[in-house]
Amino acid sequence: MSPFHIPSLRWRLVAIMCVAYVVVAIVSGAVSYSAQRSGLRQQLTARARSDAAILAAGAAGPVSVGGLKNRQVLIDFVSAVQSTERLTSIIIRGPDGCVLTPPRMKGCKPFLTIQARTSILPNGNAMAVAPIIPTGAATLAGYVTVELSGKTVSDSLHQDLMVDALVAFIGLLIFLLLSLVIAGYILGPVMSLARAASAIRHGELTARVPTQGSTELSDLAGAFNEMAASLERRIEQLSLLADTGAILPSTLQAHEDARPLLQSFARTLGACAAGMPDRDDLWWDDGKSTCRDAARALGGVGTPTLAQRGEAVLLALPVPQGVFVLAREGRAFSRDEQQVAANFAFQLGIAAENVRLFEAQQEALNVKDQFLSIVSHELRTPLTAMKGYAQMLRRRLADDPDGQRFAASIDAQVTRLSRLVDDLLDVTRFARSQFELTRRPMDLRPALEEAVNRFSIIAPNHTFRLEVTDGDLHGEWDRDRLEQVLNNLIGNAVKYSPNGGEVLVRAGRTDHEITIAVHDQGVGIPPEEQSQVFDRFYRSAGTQNVKGMGLGLYVTRRVIEAHGGTVGVRSEPGAGSEFYFTLPVVGAGVAAS
After folding, report:
1. Beta strands in 94-231 (DSSP E)
2. Does the pLDDT of residue 307 top 70, yes or no?
3. All domains of the chain in start order, with CATH
């Protein structure tokens, strides 16, 4: 960065003008000083020459060729002239070159032919030499040397220089004030432009620059105002698109009136009609027949279309469920406005299509839930009868080992089928928000022991172990539903563990909750699938060879969440899995939804 960096453009201009003034003042002062010095020196040498000629003429009388007739007269004459003319030095020499006056000065110079001459000495004094030739004589009687001090010249130059410097300084102050005025006059519109740009940068989109006259700066201000207005309109349109994009889906899904949104969008673009002409719930116009009729007549196009119908300018854009039409009078749509309209039409069409798909999906889900509910209810009756007959066969065939084994297998498969039917029925209850809990005070320890003992009989090839830490396992829960959860978790542990594997059930209590965990020695679950195992109908890729519908863990999660607890899994591939759930000891549960 330059050491003379000036952030303000105004002060930059003032500084440049002042520097230019100073440079001009210095140059002109130097030229003036040189001219004055030369003129004063010419005046000094001219005076010295004149004084020397006068002295030579005055000394011609007292001096004669070959000697001095009256030296005192010459001395008096020289003294009078020197005091009158204020000469620095006067020396009169005779024809032999010896000093005649002043009397105290001695010495002689070789005789030379003397001609009148002047010169400037190194000390700045002017010296003039004039020959003394008496009247009527043809020979040289001597010569006069006059030295005139140059101090008057230097004093005059110094005085003039001081005056010029003072005048230049006063001129600089005046020029500085004028520069500020000129800079303000020239840069005022630029500064206004900078302030308006800063205001727009800080969000004041209505900031504008005043325009005056017809100068280039006025043209620049006008262009800036047009740009700012265009930017304001663009941001307003983008804000409207963002707002409507967030509101449209929920508005259409809730079957609320979307025409206020269409009206707001149309007003933003100065349009008299907007929407889908074939859908009254997605159409708005200002009531003028010309605009309405022209817009509705443009439906059915397959590509984006611009058209003119009388005074109405129409823009038609195909959307997933029809055609979006925008109409206004007198003024064509700019490229930016066409893009904004296309974005809005896309949002509207996608939202309408999503609502249609959502409603179709909901209808399909309702049909499916109804089917599952009917099938589940219809299957429960024959399954109950089959289970009763299977248990009766087991009692009657107590002495027949093969028959006993076949009857036990039938009983187990009916029990499994009944559990699947119950899970399907629970899924339909969850979907319809009809799932309820029957809470009663209970102790979890007997329920855990009963579940472990039951599976020890059902799966004799596995080892079951129950670990309960010291602590009270009493609470107020739905016993049947918790038994269903335990059956699902322990049953999964048996299915996914190898024959001879161990199933460990742990229970413990903290101040506010009870934690139950079921650990198996199965194949484990990859980390990327652990967040999905509790989803409806989801089955891990490594368990596809195990029979099941993927509902047990989903029902488990919903039952535990209905109690106000949480459910989770800890697993590593090849190291088994541990499914756990928590139950709050204090506080009511949350209804399932």
Report:
1. 99-101, 117-120, 126-132, 142-148
2. yes
3. 9-159 (3.30.450.20), 232-351 (3.30.450), 363-428 (1.10.287.130), 439-584 (3.30.565.10)
